[in-house]
Structures are given as C-alpha cells and as structure tokens.
Prior knowledge:
The complex is a heterotrimer. Chain A is 33% helix and 22% strand. Chain A has 10 helices and 10 strands. In chain A, helix 4 crosses helix 5. In chain A, 51% of the residues are buried. Residues 1-31 of chain A have low confidence and may be disordered. Chain B has 9 helices and 2 strands, in the order ααααββααααα. Chain B has a two-stranded antiparallel sheet. The longest helix of chain B is centred in the C-terminal third of the chain and has 32 residues, at 185-216. Chain B starts with 10 loop residues before the first helix and ends with a helix. Chain C folds into 2 domains: 14-261, Arp2/3 complex 21 kDa subunit ARPC3 (Orthogonal Bundle); 276-316. Chain C has a two-stranded antiparallel sheet. The structure holds adenosine-5'-triphosphate and magnesium ion (MG). Magnesium ion binds at residues 77-78, 119, 196 of chain A.
Amino acid sequence: MTDRHEHLHTHPGAPLPHSHGHDHAHDAPLTPTGDGTIAISHLHFRYPDGTEALRGMDLAITGGEKVALLGQNGAGKSTLMLHLNGIHRPTHGTVHVAGMQVSNETIGRVRAEVGLVFQDPDDQLFSPTVWDDVAFGPTHMGLTPGAIHDRVEVALAAVGALDLAQRAPMRLSIGQRKRVALATVLAMNPSILVFDEPSAGLDPRGRRELIELLQSLTQTLIVSTHDLELARAAFPRSIVVDRGVIVADGSTSEILGNRELLLAHGLA
Amino acid sequence: MEPRGVGRDARAAVITTLAFVTAVALLPPGSYVALLLAWLLVTFAGALLGISPGHLARRGLVALPFVVAAVPIVFLRNDELLWAGSVGPLTLQISGAGLRIALTALLKAWISVQASVLLLALASPPSIVTALRRMRLPDVIATSAGLTIRYLELLRDEARRMLRARTARSASPVGVGRERIGGTIAWRARTTGNLVGSLFLRAYSRAQRIEEAAASRGATGSLSVGTLPVADPRLTIKVVGVLVLVLVLTLAGVLLPRL
Amino acid sequence: MYPQLHIPDGFLSPQISLLLWVATAVLIGIAVRKTSRTDVRLIASQPILMGVLGAFIFAAQMFNFPVATGTSGHLLGGVLAGYLLGPWAGTIVMATVIGIQALLFQDGGLLVLGANIFNMGIIGTLGGSFVARGIGTALGGSRSATILGAGVAAWLAVVAAAGFTTLQLGLSGTTNIAVGLPAMLGVHALIGIGEALITVAALTFIAQTAPDILAGVSAPRKASPVRRLAIGVVIAGGVATLASFFASADPDGLEAVAEELGFLDAGLSAPFELFPDYTIPGLDGTASTVVAGLLGMIVVIGVLLALGRLARSRTKS
Ligand SMILES: Nc1ncnc2c1ncn2[C@@H]1O[C@H](COP(=O)(O)OP(=O)(O)OP(=O)(O)O)[C@@H](O)[C@H]1O
Ligand SMILES: [Mg+2]
C-alpha cells in the first residue's frame, strides 16, 4: 500500500485527482467541517444489566491530536469509544465532539464528524462489494453520485485497497478487511477518527503499513490498543483506563517508561 | 413446585400451561369474575415462584397492541348500543357486546401471556423441548428447535453489532443535526437485505463448523438430542390435578356472574 | 410497522384454534416425512443447518430499514427460509421459529400457535416457496428468475398470511371482516413490499458472494417451454382468484359464515348460559355493575400487595 500513500497527504483539502471528470464543486470531499476537538466531563455509564463501565471520566483532546487508549481487558475502552459517536449516551456527564454536545439534536452531524471503526471488521462490512461498502456512508449523507465516486476512490487509495474495490468483503483476509473498514469511515470525511484495536490480527507487514497509515493521517485520532509498540510509534499522547476511570494521561514515552504504572494496570 | 433445570421432566409444567390457556380461552365473553379467578391462580403461582405480580402483569402487556384487531367490532356491531352520536362528520356508535368481546379477548391474552412466562420460570427452554419430544414431537423438529435455542442469543448478538456498526455510519448531510434518513427506500431496503445476507453467510459457516466439530468427535448422522431425563413419577397425579383445575375454572365460567 | 401476524391467546375461538392445530399438525407431519427422505444437498447434516438457520431467521427479523420517520420495514423470512432450505425444511424451520417466539418471547399465543404456524409457516413459507418456484420456473429458471420469483412470492406470502389471520379473527367473532380484511390487506400490501425487497436483496447478496452455497439449493431447473407456460397460467390463475376473492371479499357472505360459527359457538357454550341475568341481589343492573367493578378492583389491589410480599419473601429464602 506504500505506493499509494500520496493520496493520504491530500488530507485535508488538497486538490483531488480529476480523472473521472465529475463535478463536485459544491462538495469539497476531504475537508473536515469540524475542528476535531473532544471534551468529556464527568462521564458515567451503566449498562442495562447494571455493569458500571465508566465511572467518572474527564478528558480534553485538541484537533489533530493523536491519542492511544490503553487499558486491560474490560477496562472500558470500547465503551468510551461508543460514546464519541453517540451509540451509547452518558448516564451522567457530557460528551462534546467538534464543539457539539452529543444529543438527539446533533446526532446526525456527530456521526459525520466521528468515524468509528469497530474491533471486528465483519460487523462493519455488509455489502456485496468493497466499493459498495465504502460508498454506504457518503450515500447515506446524500452526496451526489460524482462526489460519492471520488470519496470512495480516495478513501480506498488511502488504505491501499483500490485494487480490492470489486471484491466481496466477506472473501477478504482479515488484514484486508481491516483496511477496508478504515476506508468506510475515511470516505465520510470525519474530523475525528476512532479505531478500536486496529492492529489485532495483522501480520508484521500489515502492522507496519497500519502504523505508516496512522502516522500519515491528519485528523484527530483515538485508537485503543494492547499493542504498546504501536502506541509508541504513532501516538505522542497516551491515556490509561482502568475499571472505568482514567488513571494516567500524558506523553506516551513517559507512560510506557513507567513500569510500575503499567504493572499496576495490567499492561505489562 | 420444582425449580427449573435441564435435567427435569418438564411435561407436567407444559401440560399445565397448555390446559390453563385452553381453559381461559373457553371462558365466554364477559366472564370477568372467572377471569379474575384465573388471574389469581397465575399470580399466586408466580408469587410461589418468587415472581412479583407487578412484573408478571407488565410482561402480560406484550399482547396489548393486538387489540387493534378487535376495534372494528366495538364500533360496528349493532347490539347493546351504549352510545350513538356524531363526532364531526362521522356518525359513531359503541356496541356493548363488541366492547365485551374486545375486553375479554384482551384480558385472556394478558392472563395467558403471564401463564407462559410462568412456564419459563418452571422449565428451561431445552427441558421444554425435551418434554415436547417425549410428547411425540418429531426428532427433526426437536433437534432443530434445540439448536435454534442454543444459537439464538449468539446470532442476535451478531445482528445487534452489525446494526450498531450501520448506525455509526448513518450520518446526516453536512449541516443537519438531527438524524436524517439517507438514500432512497430501495437503497435502504437493499442495504438491509445485504445485512441479512451477511448474517446468513456467518450462520452458514457456523453451521459448518458445528458440523465439523461434531464429526471430529465421532458423531454420525443426526445430532443426538441428549438423553431424556428421568420421567416424573408423579406425572399422572399432576395431570389429574391439572384437569381438576381446568374443570373448576370452566365451571367458574358457567356459575360466576358475567357482565 | 411490524407485521401484525402473531395472534395472542384469547383472540381466536377454541374451535378455530383446534381446527388449525389439526391442519398444521398434518402438514408439518408431511414436511417431516419429506425432509427425512430428502437427499441432503447442503452439508452432511441437515438438522444442524436447520437449527442454526432457525436462529438466523430469528436474528434477521431484527434488521429493519426506515421507511419514514417512525415506521420501518421488517423481514418475516418465510420465503427466504424456503428458498435457502427448500420448501419443506424451510417450513419446519419457520414453524420452529414461530413456536420458540411463542414459548420464549410470548410473541403469539400457545393455544393459537397452530393458527400462527398455519398462517406464517404453512401459507407463508410452504405456499410461498411453491409459488416462488413456480414463478422462477415460468420465468426461465435462471438464478435471477428464481430470486425474482422469491420476491413476488414474499409479497404474496405476507399479504396472504394477513388475509388468513383476519379471516380467522373474523370467524372467531373478534373482528369485523368487512372492515378488518381491507385494512389488514392494505397495510400488509405495504409491509409485503419491504419483505419482497429484503428477500430479493438478501438472495442476490448470497448469490453474488457465495454462489457455491446456493448451487445445491433451489437449483435453477430447466423446464420445457410448454411446462413453463402451464405453470405460469396456473399461478396467474391462482393469484387472480385469490385477488378477486380478497377484493370483492363478499363480506356479507363471510359475515354470514362468521355468524353461523357464532351460533355454533353459542351452542357449544350453552352451559355457560345457565344464569344469563345474574346480578348482585338487591341492586339494579347498572348499580350492580359498578359495585362488581369496585369489588373487583379492591380484590386486585389487595392481591397485588399480598402476593408482592410473598414473592419478595420467596426470592430472599
Ligand atoms: N453490552 C454490555 N452489557 C453489559 N456489560 C458490558 C457490555 N459491554 C461491555 N460490558 C462491560 O463493561 C466493561 C467495559 O467493557 P469494554 O468492552 O468497554 O472494555 P474494553 O476496555 O474495551 O476491553 P477489551 O480490551 O477486552 O476490548 C466490562 O466490565 C464489560 O464486561
Ligand atoms: Mg474493547
């Protein structure tokens, strides 16, 4: 996928290849509209069965920041991420993304601002072809066919999956599926990208390519991972979550250098 | 009453529930007192099993929306008119007989649902299947039902996660805050069909894996449904008791006042 | 907009319920014989596939698509199951699903389970699947033809199931057929479109993504032009008959049947008429109604309180 990385650097707003001659004057495909900020205060969340998954979180992330979310199994990483897209709503507290409080009034825009990639790509991909799947988000947003075409092409190129466009997602390898899943949200042109364990199940080369991809993205990036090397390579800032609270928040090198902290929270 | 368990013979519980529901169905319209008696029986049995009457009553409400089906007779029957008049341009009438039928149906539904909630408290789903198998339910159906029950939650969970991922990508056009439905109806239906197709392929490959696992453990032909639990030695007595109960309820329908 | 096809207990008369139990039992019995004799075309063990696909149909019924704000399209899945497993095995799977819905989720009643299986499993799945096959063959028997046939059949299956449901309710005296039938058919004609669209899309998806799985099942069959024509004529005739039956629906005639069954009902419940004018002694009709109502409420509240305590003490111990 390295040879296609040029496209990545078109984020945001760089001129697009006009190879298809579509008119997309009223839609600038890869320009995020929001400022990419996240502000969470006093976030509590209880699942219907009574599990207290989040127990008071405060967090501020500025536009374009790259943050790794660390924490042992069941710490609350996925639950937190599902709040950023409005899938879960706080039991107490508030979540703001790109300057909007997540609520029924803003949910349509929140989903456009925050691209959420789930842990299991099989949940995310459901179309007969990769192309159709990547086109889902832009189509739902009501873009013109020309704009949809451009967005799909740019997003697939960004993850190096243009050659998979006509394949069936279900018939791809895990690594290929993960890349396509990333493309499905890149095509929606969000200002915030949220990935749940993107490196799980990747072979060494796939992982290296993922790291390069993450490094090249300019959007705000929040990635949960058990892969400390990935965190070190691509994320200047790290947050450690344990039992529903944030127990450490700082530079990745400091946090990964603090062996006691890592041991205390099941990370080493 | 015995607690639920897989290894129990659940025939008595199944027979009781079916007999009770039948007895309730036999009650004529307007037998509210007999229905009250039936409800008391269910609620009392529920309390003995540690289920609060309020909880049971709420569960019973699932059948409520179906009462729409009985709305026409309330307004269209011509007997025992309670009221007739005009509302705006419409001339309307309310039939007492129709109202009685609708209300009776609703109460019967409400009580019957509570009875089947109790059945679940008494017997686990697999033990109900086993009981039905003992009562001559064909093996193909029993095997298929057993597996359906076993994989139900798993596949519903997969479906839920797929729906969630679709929701996460269902954004509104730039500038629109509230949720907005996107695409054409046909496109949305096709997307839903794609989800159904994806789930089918996942279910199909799961079936293949189960098959391979069964084969590798040396299973041949149809999957064994498991051995039958020890037959309930007091089944006859219990069934006789149930029949007495049903008779009492039916007699109550005959003898108690109706409105 | 969920299809209103799962009848709860209490809405059908016991006679109709038992009659449909018998009809359902006979047809399911035939299905069981047919499936145990079918050569296993899919994978080695058909019961495993049937069981897992039962769970699949269950879960697939959760998928919806928004039609307009507040309404959404859903899948019932009868014709889909019939296409994927063959009409007979598909019918058994749907019957199992409907049975489990009644037992585990109280979606549809127990005494009326025979009727619900009859409407959605026998009419909706068995009938629907044969119509689908017929249309598919008549259209040339290619894969896309059979899928199109399944779409048309899916629509018909939902509408026909709604029609049968209403007829049974009408014959039980719980609805007015003249009003209920057009209403139910109208609503389900719309719901059926969703069913058809989802069925076609799902089958197209499977045919595109995993043609190997579909290869064994519902294999496109080549039929001679004459046979195709014959099948087409038969189906068209059947649909036309059904349509005209529902359209003209001779409501008076149906109403008359219902009334007759009503008399039958009254006849059977003659013992219930022993004390037709029972009132509380010393009170006139209206007052005794009111008093009875109040007494009833007091008993209900008292029981709720007392049994609530009993339940709590039981849970603790
Ligand atoms: N649907 C649910 N219902 C109830 N509890 C849940 C649900 N999903 C998660 N939980 C619970 O919430 C807590 C946080 O779970 P979460 O999935 O957010 O953890 P995580 O940090 O993502 O873990 P992992 O590294 O294993 O993915 C856990 O205790 C988990 O058991
Ligand atoms: Mg997680």
